[in-house]
Specification:
Elements lengths: L5 E5 L3 H12 L4 E5 L2 H11 L3 E5 L7 H11 L4 E6 L4 H9 L4 E4 L4 H60 L6 H28 L2 H4 L5 E3 L1 H18 L3 E6 L6 E3 L1 H17 L6 E9 L2 E8 L31 H11 L3 E7 L3 E9 L7 H10 L4
Parallel strand pairs: 1-2, 1-3, 3-4, 4-5, 7-9
Antiparallel strand pairs: 6-8, 9-10, 10-12, 11-12
Helix pairs in contact: 2-3, 5-6, 6-10, 8-9, 9-10
The protein binds adenosine-5'-diphosphate (ADP).
Adenosine-5'-diphosphate (ADP) binds next to helix 9 and helix 10.
Length: 381
């Protein structure tokens, strides 16, 4: 049998509690009541309600405080405010504190039944969304496991064998055979790189990066990224220029992953640039944020592609002639978001694109005693 929905009513008026219980009892709900906020909150861990009615005006904890605490304990519980002084302000305030709806006193049995049904429908949707999200996450993890075991491992073995074959047969192969072997090796390398990026995109490891965050120097990260893209830029005769405003706060993060994000952006800028052009990488600080921009004067991005380029596997019209997987920007966005940052892009087809990463500037707290000493030495003397 399906579990019955549980409803908790918190109101200091006994007559309201009795009336609500009587009206709703026919609806096959499990009911609990409390005459004040503290008692009501105390019931939540054990009773685990789906829906809570809270009177706004009660002695002791106010309805607003109860709402806030319910949200802290379990934000999925649907709360409805009962109020004798239904003003627009009190309704807005209740919604801000997490209430789903409000029921002005006095109310009719039908009004109570209707709002209960709506509240429980909301609860059903919330629980369904959580279950779907969990299912999606499990699928993602399952998929990541399949990709790594069933694809990555055999490809690693192929890569290893091709390498051994190349060594064993060196000197015995014709130029054409060597060329064919090298092409095989390079395709396998590309596939392994694609799988690596793919796994990074779908894995949850990026979210766990936070555990090892340290202050990272942005100019140093840019220098490392440029070094990595430089061979590609040289082949295409694209000049990479970097500049950093002084002073520039560090950012709190994982250097390797931030460099990976920058390599993706600078790599794209080179990839979608014209031969002989220039890519500018600039770092500056604005209002507690460090902004890193990567600007090119390349092919640009079509307006209709712009809203989608950060999605997994999306390749824009500009991607057409170039090889790629449509995963670079998706991974970059996830890395930046794991650093509490955001990304933006401006682009004009035929003129070029500028991608901007915004990260919170890291400002270590000055200890109060240090600040005091500083103010004393810099003061009257
Ligand atoms: P990929 O480059 O492998 O296709 P990305 O996720 O890195 O995948 O980029 C998604 C799409 O965004 C690309 O296919 C391309 O259309 C567009 N794009 C990204 N960066 C640039 C750029 N600097 N200039 C023009 N188009 C770009």
């Amino acid at each position: 049998m399906e579990d019955r929905y549980k409803i908790l009513i918190i109101d200091d008026e006994e007559v309201v509690l009795d009336a609500c219980t009587q009206i709703l009892e026919g609806g096959h709900y499990e009911m609990a009541t409390a005459m004040d906020g503290a008692h009501g909150l105390g019931l939540i861990p054990e009773f685990r309600p789906d829906l809570v009615f809270v009177d706004l005006k009660m002695p002791g904890l106010s309805g607003f405080e109860v709402l806030e605490k319910i949200r802290d304990v379990d934000p999925t519980i649907v709360a409805i405010v009962i109020t004798g002084y239904a003003t627009v302000n009190s309704a807005v305030d209740s919604m801000k504190k997490g209430a789903f709806d409000f029921l002005p006193k006095p109310f009719t049995p039908d009004e109570l039944r209707l709002i209960t049904r709506r509240g429980l429908e909301k609860r059903r949707l919330v629980l369904e969304t959580i279950a779907l999200r969990r299912e999606k996450e499990m699928l993602r993890e399952h998929f990541a496991a399949i990709v790594s075991h069933e694809l990555k491992s055999p490809l690693n073995a192929v890569q290893q064998s091709l390498f051994a074959l190349g060594v064993e047969l060196s000197g015995q192969l014709t130029a054409e055979q060597r060329n064919r072997l090298e092409r095989c090796q390079s395709r396998v390398d590309d596939l392994l790189q694609l799988i690596h990026t793919w796994l990074r995109v779908i894995s949850r490891d990026i979210g766990k990066l936070r555990e090892n965050f340290r202050p990272v120097s942005v100019p140093a990260a840019i220098a490392k990224a440029i070094e990595s893209v430089q061979p590609h830029a040289l082949r295409k005769d694209v000049a990479l220029q970097a500049s950093a405003e002084e002073p520039l706060s560090p950012v709190l993060g994982d250097e390797g992953t931030l460099v990976e994000a920058l390599v993706n952006l600078i790599g794209n800028a080179v990839k979608y640039s014209r031969v002989g052009s220039q890519v500018l990488v600039k770092a500056e600080e604005r209002e507690a944020s460090v902004l890193i921009s990567v600007a090119d004067t390349g092919v640009g991005i079509a307006k209709e592609d712009l809203p989608f380029i950060f999605e997994d596997f999306y390749r824009g019209q500009s991607g057409g002639v170039e090889t790629g997987s449509g995963l670079g920007l998706a991974l970059t966005r996830r890395i930046v978001e794991a650093h509490q940052g955001a990304m933006a892009v401006e682009s004009e087809p035929g003129q070029g694109s500028t991608f901007v990463i915004r990260l919170p500037a890291f400002k270590p707290l000055i200890l109060e005693s240090d600040a005091l000493a500083e103010s004393q030495t810099g003061g009257i003397r």
